[in-house]
Amino acid sequence: MVYLLQVDFTMDGPFGDEMSEGFKDLAHSINDEEGIMWKIWTEDAVAKEAGGVYLFETKESAKKYLAMHSARLTSFGITNIRGKIFEVNEALSSINNGPIHK
Q1: In angstroms, rounded to a whole number, what is the distance separating the alpha carbons of residues 60 and 100?
Q2: Reported confidence tier of residue 79, pLDDT bands at 50, 70, 90
Q3: Less CB within 10 Å around the terminal CB: N or C of the chain?
């Protein structure tokens, strides 16, 4: 079984190309996190929200990452961090071409 972590928070920016450039090193470092399979970055400049959807090999690695990432975001001055971990129903997700791979 794999686990999906959904994180979102409010922030003033940057967004778009500035976000892509400013967080490039962070994006590369996420690939080194224990149990991570992939991340999709999310942003809404109008609502001033950002976050991501992650897939982890284990619930424990998702919990560990959420705790570390929440602390990191807090150190950046970001508040109102919301994180949820879900079990992925792989059988149904595969019917809809969900990007689940091991």
Answers
A1: 18
A2: confident
A3: C
Place of tokens 């967080």: 23
Dist. CA 43–CA 9, nearest whole Å: 10
**Type of residue numbered 11:** M
The full set of domains in the chain, from first to last, is: 3-95 (3.30.70.100)
> Which two three-digit tokens encode residue 15?
């967004």
85: nearest Cα among 67, 61, 65, 62: 62
Inter-residue contact 48 to 13 (CB < 8 Å): yes
Encoded tokens for 61: 């690695």
**Cα torsion 83, 66, 76, 41: sign:** negative
Residue 89 per-residue DSSP state: -
Q: Taking the CB of residue 3, how many other CB atoms lie within 10 A of it?
A: 20
The Cα–Cα gap between 57 and 83 comes to 17
